[in-house]
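Suppose a classmate hands you a notebook page containing two proteins, each written out with its sequence and a corresponding row of structure tokens. How would you begin to make sense of it? This section walks through that situation. The first entry is reproduced here exactly as it would appear on such a page.
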Amino acid sequence: MPPLKALLAFEAACRHGSFSQGATELGVTPSAVSHQIQQLEDFLGATLFQRRAGRAVLTDAGRRYAHEIEHALGVIRQATELVAPQSQSGHLVIAAGPSFAAKWLQPRLPDFLRAHPSIRVRLSTISSAADLEDTRFDLAIAYGAPPAGQPHVEPLLVERLRPLCSPELAARIDLRTPHDLARATLIHSVNAFTWAEYLRQVGVGQLHAGNELWLDRSTMAIEAAVSGLGVVLESELLAAQELSDGRLVAPFGDQASAVERTSYFLVRPRGGRVGRQTVAFEKWLRTAIASS
């Protein structure tokens, strides 16, 4: 590992294009910054700056290194903000699963921000409800079963799942009833209902599909279905845009071919303290869910 103080000096000098301005930000002297960067250059065996009359001009090696260091320090900042409440002062931290965050929540956030311009939102993704044990949040939207170990949990919404595919695939393999899925590639994703459970519920029982594809995110599974790779058992909530613009269709349109599950839960942090910003977001969230 290179000396970390030298990395901070290098990053500050890069941003300001000046050793003296970088030194002012760090609260040290310009000679101290120059010494740190010289130490870093000695460690790397490469020249990072060309010194020109008070300006710090990056070399080619310096530009490449600066790009990577900026990214690395950004990761450290994000990790710190994720777990350190004091770094989130004034932020409303919302935690949600990656697919719900990307497909449903993020596209609607501009509406909330327009209605509440003074509230700063940080959207944090969680892979599972178990992640909430180690995550700082003001409000969380957990998927699947009610999260264990969380004292403040309530059902948020019921989702409807059904087989979805591209219109071209539905026509090509002539999908008319769930029994016709034997001619399809079944796309599996991580959701509240498996293909085996679905087939039992709609009375098909065991079915030997033409092929199967497993993906670990609903976003990936929906894109795979749009591309014509197969039929996905997915939420109408997450695939609303693709259904609206015709990239996906429900080949079995009757209500009997859909299943409904309470699979999203609202989680409040321990302590039960609910601030003004949290109340505003929850009210907006429930309204947005009802309208969608």
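The notebook's second entry, a different protein, reads as follows.
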Amino acid sequence: MKRIGFLSFGNWTPAPGSRTRTARDALLQTVELAVAAEELGVDGAFVRVHHFARQQAAPFPVLAAVAARTERIEIGTGVIDMRYENPLYMAEEAAQVDLLSGGRLQLGVSRGSPEPALDGPATFGYVPAEGTTGADMARAHTELFRAAIAGAGLAEADPRTAGTSARLKVTPQAPGLSERVWWGSGTRETARWAGREGMNLMSSTLLTEDTGVPFDELQAEQIEGFRRAWAEAGHRHEPRVSVSRSVLPITTDEDRWYFGARAEQDSRDQVGYVGGVELARFGRSYVGEPDVIAEQLAKDAAVREADTLLLTVPNQLGVDFNARMLSTIVEHVAPAIGWERRS
């Protein structure tokens, strides 16, 4: 049975028409939308993480607030750029949020995407070792983070104060969290790497490669390679896979005013460059009448293969608008891909 969740970028700006005019607006509305989504039966509330921009930047405070206001919905990130992170401090924060939520944290991490800063990680104090890249540093940070949340002894104890000579773990520990780490993958190769490493797969609306086949088919190939690598590595628990889609049903004049013009122009894949360097294929959006996009989404090869669909939401249109949009998707679109409301 499929799961569906929303993914918010947490954008805020004082521009005309914005309902998130300040960072406080965006944070509070993320919490309120998660509460509304849980009431609708949506399975997940996820936030995107970006630095040096008017977007969600530090996810753990807002996820803790969501945890305190909800009971069932999964909470997570999509994704944290690990180049910017202190792995051990992050392990402490993640464990505490997971404990507060009762084990609902689903943590998406990765190399991240281009940021406005020329070298943001260096500004945060993180510079790749000589002969390595930012991607190498992100993987090294992830390795240490995963060791920490899995309970590895990392610090040499001072017997005078610790009463032991055993190596010390980061505390607190959150049972099962190590099986709920997802790698945000933009290529087939990194998906296979994630499978070998035993992380779940999180794939978004773009891949930084292009073979000429439609986006959903390329992404389905990525998912197949991930699952094959997982099986060959012999991991014991079942892997999970999420894909992101922009799904915008049009049911009112307001919807049509915002998204009607996109129905045609965004109905096909696009090929371009990310950061002016990497060739990428961008997946289509699903915009239109609910019954039409339900039929289209059901034919999406990657959506069929994934167990979780993350719906990117236009968060600057406010909680009421997005809750109504999610309600339409829950009632008229999601059942077409095999979703049912969980009790």
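A careful reader of the second entry would note: The chain has a mean pLDDT of 94.
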